[in-house]
């Protein structure tokens, strides 16, 4: 039988402790997500509503098909920075008239929806997802343009937003802009470069330069409506394809535009879907609070895949990496999951072969991270750990099937690379609240710095200050611990969101559906030289 049995004892004290630790982390995460939902805060939200306007998330809700999910992406963008959590932009994947779309919505309650450096990074990531997965883009626009004090970080790379829209259109991926308010300066090019444009009566304002700038540049006196109002663009300039009487009418028209796209997925539809045999709620108690304690990733897999059915590949070889085949929401899937944390030569070679097989069969890959990296030591260096680790990284780098990554626990060192970290372009990467990622663990990194400093002092014949060493180690450990946490990394868009483990199957199901919007084709050869 290939159905996974579970050895998880939900009555054990260890399970209760792990679950309690995860729930505490989820409470902290909920508080941070609430900051993004709050946008500019109660004062500015109330002022926005007093003008008869909908919030960004209300606009998205009316745009989407009823009772369909919205997978919000990068909700913690800008966390830990001087800018509002969420980066004044909401992005995500949702279904409009039966069509999966990439949706972006400016949050006008945060500095009028102005774009800061993190807004730009978040928007570019959204465009990247749309292009890779051939998702039509719907932009819900209300933005004052660039946050001028930070223009030095926005202006040069910001042109990529407009480049992306034109490239999407050239690739046959539809783009729709719905303008609710200001869309000025560079922001005017969002509707200007979209395939379909809807503007709201007496609200939409689209111009390269507003009345004050026009007055300064040319001496001409003008008003918002004649310069860039919806009526003018619908009747005179022709920029507006559709004229909406209010916001709800604009969203209704946007749904009709999507309905008329004649959009069809290029990939096969999923097969029969079965729920896992084991309760997804139990995912809360699998990962230990102390990531040095190993756990069996099969317990996770059994609660993610259809029917808990998993055909393990090479189960007796390279046992600290679990590999095998399954289906998730009807989609075929290859899975690589870290078992005991460390990757040895056998695991690296096993992974490389498995990745090649997935490419031959055109099967997407899921990487479940809990690794401290590749093994070090004289015997392992002499055994070829470098060339075998390079073999695995080579396979990941040149694989052409879609990759999905979930950081469950540790994801340290080159093991993060070999397991398809952010730099290796997974289509989507999510983290659990239990995850940590850095060049190495805090204690190890602080210890290495201490050893180097101690050796330097000895070489120079200087006495070593043990008290200063202890203070340095404590400071470094605290810094690395803080910089390894999911909220910190998510704030810098090193993942696409920190998710509740119980939502993992749903999130992956949405992602797998999205990646099948583009052809799923593996590499036929095309790998670099595998050093044997």
Automatic annotation (TrEMBL):
Entry-linked Gene3D superfamilies: 2-enoyl-CoA Hydratase, Chain A, domain 1
One of the record's GO molecular function terms: ligase activity
Record domain CoA carboxyltransferase N-terminal: where: 22-273
Name of one Pfam family that matches: Carboxyl_trans
Domain CoA carboxyltransferase C-terminal: 275-532
Classification via PANTHER family: ACETYL, PROPIONYL, PYRUVATE, AND GLUTACONYL CARBOXYLASE-RELATED (PTHR22855), METHYLCROTONOYL-COA CARBOXYLASE (PTHR22855:SF46)
UniProt name for this protein: Acetyl-CoA carboxylase carboxyltransferase subunit
């Amino acid at each position: 039988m290939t159905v996974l049995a579970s050895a998880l004892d939900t009555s054990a004290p260890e399970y209760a402790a792990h679950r309690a630790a995860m729930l505490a982390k989820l409470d902290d995460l909920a508080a941070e997500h609430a900051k993004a939902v709050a946008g500019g805060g109660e004062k500015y939200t109330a002022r926005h509503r007093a003008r008869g306007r909908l919030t960004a998330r209300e606009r998205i809700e009316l745009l989407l098909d009823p009772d369909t999910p919205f997978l919000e992406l990068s909700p913690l963008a800008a966390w830990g920075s001087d800018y509002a959590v969420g980066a004044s932009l909401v992005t995500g994947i949702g279904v409009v008239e039966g069509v999966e779309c990439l949706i972006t919505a400016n949050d006008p309650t945060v500095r009028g929806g102005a774009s800061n450096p993190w807004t730009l990074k978040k928007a570019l990531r959204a465009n990247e997802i749309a292009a890779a997965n051939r998702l039509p883009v719907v932009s819900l626009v209300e933005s004052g343009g660039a946050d001028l004090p930070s223009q030095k970080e926005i202006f040069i790379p910001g042109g990529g937003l407009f480049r992306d829209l034109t490239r999407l259109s050239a690739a046959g991926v539809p783009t729709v802009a719905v303008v609710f308010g200001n869309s000025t300066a560079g922001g005017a090019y969002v509707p200007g470069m979209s395939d379909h444009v809807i503007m709201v009566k007496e609200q939409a304002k689209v111009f390269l330069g507003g009345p004050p700038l026009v007055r300064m540049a040319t001496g001409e006196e003008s008003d918002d409506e004649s310069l860039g109002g919806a009526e003018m663009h619908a009747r005179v300039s022709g920029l507006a394809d559709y004229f909406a009487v209010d916001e709800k009418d604009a969203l209704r028209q946007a749904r009709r535009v999507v309905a008329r796209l004649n959009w069809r997925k290029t990939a096969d539809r999923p097969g029969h879907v079965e729920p896992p045999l084991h309760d997804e709620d139990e995912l809360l108690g699998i990962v230990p609070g102390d990531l040095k304690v190993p756990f069996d990733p099969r317990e996770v897999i059994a609660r993610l895949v259809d029917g808990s059915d998993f055909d393990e590949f090479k189960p007796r070889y390279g046992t600290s990496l679990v590999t095998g085949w399954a289906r998730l929401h009807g989609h075929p899937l290859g899975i690589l999951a870290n078992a005991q944390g460390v990757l040895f030569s056998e695991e690296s070679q096993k992974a490389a072969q498995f990745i090649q097989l997935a490419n031959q069969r055109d099967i997407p890959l899921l990487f479940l991270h809990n690794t401290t990296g590749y093994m070090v030591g004289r015997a392992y260096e002499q055994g070829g750990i470098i060339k075998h680790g390079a073999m695995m990284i080579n396979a990941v780098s040149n694989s052409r099937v879609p990759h999905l990554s979930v950081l469950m626990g540790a994801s340290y060192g080159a093991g993060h690379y070999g397991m398809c970290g952010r730099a290796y372009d997974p289509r989507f990467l999510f983290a659990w609240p239990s995850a940590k990622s850095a060049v190495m663990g805090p204690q190890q990194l602080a210890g290495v710095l201490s050893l180097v400093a101690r050796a330097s002092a000895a070489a120079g014949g200087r006495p070593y200050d043990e008290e200063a060493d202890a203070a340095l180690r404590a400071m470094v450990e605290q810094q690395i611990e803080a910089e390894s946490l999911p909220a910190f990394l998510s704030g810098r868009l090193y993942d696409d969101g920190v998710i509740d483990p119980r939502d993992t199957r749903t999130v992956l199901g949405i992602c797998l559906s999205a990646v099948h919007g583009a052809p799923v084709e593996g590499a036929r050869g095309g790998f670099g030289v595998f050093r044997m």
